[in-house]
Design a protein that fits this description.
By secondary structure, the chain is an alpha/beta fold. It has two domains: 94-313, Type I PLP-dependent aspartate aminotransferase-like (Major domain) (Aspartate Aminotransferase, domain 2); 323-413, Aspartate Aminotransferase, domain 1 (Alpha-Beta Complex), CATH 3.90.1150. It has 15 helices and 16 strands. It has helices spanning 3-8, 32-37, 39-50, 70-84, 101-111, 124-134, 151-164, 180-189, 213-222, 242-245, 254-257, 304-320, 322-341, 370-378, 399-413; strands at residues 12-13, 16-17, 58-59, 94-95, 118-121, 142-146, 167-171, 195-201, 226-230, 249-252, 265-269, 302-303, 346-348, 361-365, 381-382, 388-391. The strands form five sheets. A seven-stranded mixed sheet has the order 5-11-10-9-8-6-7, sandwiched between helices. Strand 8, helix 9 (213-222) and strand 9 form a beta-alpha-beta unit. Helix 6 (124-134) runs parallel beside helix 7 (151-164), helix 13 (322-341) packs parallel to helix 15 and helix 14 packs across helix 15 (399-413). The longest helix has 20 residues, at 322-341. It starts with a helix and ends with a helix. The structure holds pyridoxal-5'-phosphate.
Length: 416
Amino acid sequence: MNRRNALRAGVTLFGVPWQKVLGAAPSSLPDDALFTRDPETYWTRIRDEQFFLPKWRSFLNNGSLGVLPRPVYQTVAAYLENAAALETPYPYPRWGYETLDEEREELSRYLGCKKDELALMHNATEAMSTVAAGLDLKAGDEVVMSSQEHPSGKAGWAQKQARFGITVREVTIPLPPKDPGQLADLMISAIGPRTRVLSFSGITSPTGLIMPIKTICDAARAKGVMTLVDGAHMHGQMALKLSDLHCDFFAGSPHKWMFASAGSGFLYIREENLDRLWPLNVTGGWDDKSLKAARFMKQGTNNRAIFEGMMAGLHFAQAVGPDRIYARIHQLARRTYERAARLPYIQLLTPNDDRMFASLVGIEFKKDASAVWQEAAKRKIFVSAGKRVRLSSHIHTRPADIDQLFDLIEEKMGKA
Ligand SMILES: Cc1ncc(COP(=O)(O)O)c(C=O)c1O
């Protein structure tokens, strides 16, 4: 019997009845008693049992795209298969016209906002492009951002500058910065009389700095300036309550840290801004303001399996536990920090302050490190190579993966 027939015959998929696979929560996580007794064995079992990662692979670049856990992969695969047989509970196995209320309701509870403030999208790039294109700004209006923005956080404003003559200004972030207060002061004091929007990352892409979002957003709001937070690195790394950040817009990419399938993103639009933002990609319903944020999801046919995978990623994150995840990835980042701090030819771009980084650690080589990267590729260490490197771990990262990289660096470049 092939797999399709097995499913139709009511057999199980990886031990789970196929009808229940959609959005499935992992059924076999190691238990909490093991975590309490022997956390390293708990995390080893998580890696071995919940991911497909082979033992020889060391993955230190979760910041670019996360790794799918097994239950998420299984959900996407099962959804596609069921959809091909038109066996999903919905009339069409798609999104792009539908409002996906159940999914948004659940995701909004996790993110700490209202369902009607949340539009599902493909990634943070799309979410930020929607904000940059969709706000009415005119020549002379100014957007201020930090010097640490990802190209996707800059491009929408650069395009608006080229088309409409707005001004874009960058605030230089010192590396490493002193403390959160310094970061807040720099961003707030950059607000000028023509500033209309502050656009900055909650966790910066190249360096992993955690920005003091609420302080900055409160000050901007007091001056009548809107705020767009690029949150691509936040949800999944740390527990969040979006409504407490006091930002106007927040762009997310759950496929980085929330275990979601690639191509799932979201845009949070603070309720009072719902009617002033123009949607970017439109079909019928784009102007129906009664839809609230769902108006921004009227995009045309899209792959619903991706979003079923996003929900499965959310369930996986919740089953492991956001606080437990944060504690683990920060512990791994500390290990990275301490290994890097020993080496005189490495400059840390991350400050020695636990409030200011989560999993991402930024380092800069003061001498040529190309021999390290050539050998890292041979030894199957997956890392974003270069003069400046951003190292990131998720819960499947083993402490030994970090040690393997730094042992290699010391082997090629010396200990002193
Ligand atoms: C801070 C930040 N924003 C946005 C992006 C773009 O994310 P996506 O490709 O998911 O849109 C990245 C990607 O690394 C990022 O680091």
